[in-house]
Specification:
Layout lengths: L7 E6 L9 H6 L3 E5 L2 H7 L7 E5 H4 L4 H10 L5 E5 L13 E4 L4 H14 L4 E4 L2 E4 L4 E4 L2 E4 L2 H12 L4 E3 H9 L8 H14 L9 E4 L3 E4 L11
Parallel strand pairs: 1-2, 1-3, 3-4, 4-5
Antiparallel strand pairs: 6-7, 7-8, 8-9, 10-12, 11-12
Helix pairs in contact: 6-7, 6-8
Length: 231
């Protein structure tokens, strides 16, 4: 099962109802939580965010959540959605929600629902040495360093993880990741490599993971887990 830190949650929750608010509690559980005060605000975040789970606190928004849930489902057909309501809804009215929770309930009950999706999420998890990439949430961790990647950066890193320790020509990387036959100008690739180094390397100016092979391309060196400090 994925660690909590590899789960990215988009929590759509009204700011006026603190009694049954859950975003801060989920953050304390170690989840990466992005908040939105309305459905429209949450949808706007999707251009930069690929959440693992969406939690829609319709009770805090003073709505039944049906319309908001349908909008998210149309945009993210496979993303699990947990809908929180004040009273038992007509289940047929919200088939787009994977789970419907009726207030009141404990934070642990919500966490238990999210954990069912953590197990399913394993197919999106790619591990190489100390490197851990979640291609649904685009979260990457490496020896304690954590970052949220853009979809393009995640695709680039995954391509390099498929052939570690192999020199990959710049033109080939550009062609595969950008899905184009044009390779006349690969400077965009170099910029993305620098962004990846900032996300992964202890010192991006002295890279130890993503290495440049002059006049050819790049090579991903498998990062090894750091030894645990002695007691």
């Amino acid at each position: 099962m994925l660690e909590n830190s590899q789960i990215s949650i988009l929590c759509v929750e009204g700011a006026r109802n603190n009694h049954f608010a859950f975003a801060k509690h989920l953050q304390r559980k170690g989840y990466v939580v992005h908040t939105a005060a309305s459905g429209a605000e949450g949808i706007a975040l999707l251009s930069d965010l690929n959440p693992t789970v969406i939690v829609i606190n319709a009770a805090s928004l003073r709505t039944n959540g049906v319309r908001i849930t349908k909008r998210f489902r149309a945009l993210l057909p496979e993303c699990p959605i947990v809908l929180i309501v004040n009273k038992d809804p007509d289940e047929s009215a919200v088939p787009e929600a994977n789970n419907v929770l009726t207030l009141p309930f404990t934070v642990q009950k919500l966490v238990n629902r999210i954990r069912t999706f953590q197990t399913i999420e394993n197919r999106h998890l790619h591990k190489l040495g100390a490197l851990l990439l979640n291609t649904r949430s685009n979260m990457v961790t490496c020896n304690g360093k954590e970052a949220h990647l853009t979809p393009r950066l995640a695709k680039l890193l995954l391509r390099m993880m498929e052939e570690p320790e192999t020199v990959l020509p710049r033109e080939e990387l550009f062609r595969k990741v950008w899905d184009t036959s044009y390779t006349g100008d690969t400077r965009t690739l170099d910029v993305h490599i620098s962004w990846l180094r900032k996300a992964l390397e202890e010192d991006p100016h002295r890279p130890a993971i993503i290495l440049t092979v002059r006049s050819i391309g790049y090579r991903l060196r498998v990062p090894q887990p750091k030894p645990e400090p002695a007691d």
